[in-house]
Amino acid sequence: MFTRICKVSEIRDDELYRFDVKDKALLVVQFQGSYFVTDSTCTHEEADLSLGMFSDGVVTCPLHRARFKVESGDVVSGPHGLAFTHDGAYALMVDDDSEDVLVIDARTNVESSLVRPLPGHQPEGIVISPDDKLAYVQERNTNDIAVLALDRSTGVLVATVSGAPIPTLMSDPMPVTMRFGQHLFYSADSDEYPISKNHWVACATCHMEGRSDAVTWRFLEGPRDTPTNGGGTINTGFLLRTAARTKVEDYWRTINSEQGGAFDPNDPGDVTLLAAIAEYVNYAIPFPVPPTTNPTLVAKGAALFASTGCASCHLGPRFTDSGFGNPNLDLDGPVLLHDVGTCATTAPFPDVASTDIQGNARTPCEFDTPSLNGLASTPPYMHDGSSPTITDAVHRMYVAAHAQPLDTDDEAALVEYLRSL
């Protein structure tokens, strides 16, 4: 029995359409002359896929950018490398997060084959041999090269793993636990660990190279700019914009709620996985190198940073007062937060009251003081990403504190100092 949804004349090629039928949200798309119907609700979280993007037969979720092919339903995430066969007929796309290689017929934009699993982890680069018989995939985490055999004998290109990977190092300079944490941080391989669901999302999906994707996400608590993990989280006080967590291991909740994972913080095996992620985040992600700055302006800006009151909140080696008066980061103890006038108060995604990981209440408009290390590499600024530049953020914060703007030359010097951190 069939249910009428719409007329084919209503569906334009390469556009996404949602239709609600019997309390079911359906996604309809026309691609290459064929019509595809699927659930319009993302299987990772309840995001509406019709609000996402569609290109080359791939639907991209608007919430966490998960991607899947409409013809097959294959989910791929974290595209990182691309190589074409020498006749241009096929493209081989390396997906860092879902840890696979997607083969696409470049003439029809249709999936030809999918190589999953690969023999190693964190695939990033790919090259194809001159005769188009082999492809070589660089796997960063396992420090090796996976070899793929490319076969067109059936009329389409099918890629398969060929033999053992080729090692690229005699010995690994990274400690074993840290290397394992790197694998977990970059992986959305839900077949291997409960880190995600359907190969959707990895920690690195938002924290690219461990830092920030410069995106403001619409969370239940309100709009949140992705924070950087550059330099690790040790000595930065509480974590999250409302001081809702105390350590990287607490991010099991983010893994479960945002990535679709299934971590149990009381399960010894999952505790081991979380400890490895923490080891990698805290000790293996370096600070970004600051841009070249003017030493004279930096010196002037440093003096202004101290004299204008910036250092009253942004203090210490990590430039934050988070955890001040609470060195053990006890969530039941005093938690220093600030209302600096940046609260999002209007719909559709205002800041709202929330709780920390232990259930303690947080007001909508008070926020934890962020670290300033590597500031030049983490735009936009403020908890909601509402300041596109350091200059804008400095202007807003100074006016909020002093009820008048800073002198233009002084503002430029202060910005130059912040860029140097």
CATH topology label of the largest domain = Cytochrome Bc1 Complex, Chain D, domain 2
| N/C terminus separation | 65 Å
CATH class group of the largest domain: Mainly Alpha
Unreliable stretches (pLDDT < 50, length at least 5) are none
What is the count of structural domains? Answer: 3
Using the CA coordinates, give the radius of gyration. 24 Å
Give a short account of the largest sheet.
5 strands, antiparallel
Helix segment count? 7
What does the overall shape look like?
Answer: globular
Q: SS-based structural class?
A: alpha+beta
CATH architecture verdict of the largest domain? Orthogonal Bundle
Helices and strands, in N-to-C order? EEEEEEEEEEEEEEEEHHEEHHHEEHH
Tell me the fraction of residues in β-strands, as a range.
15-25%
Strand element count = 20
Mean pLDDT: 91
Q: Can you tell me the CATH superfamily of the largest domain?
A: Cytochrome c-like domain
How much helix is in the residues?
10-25%
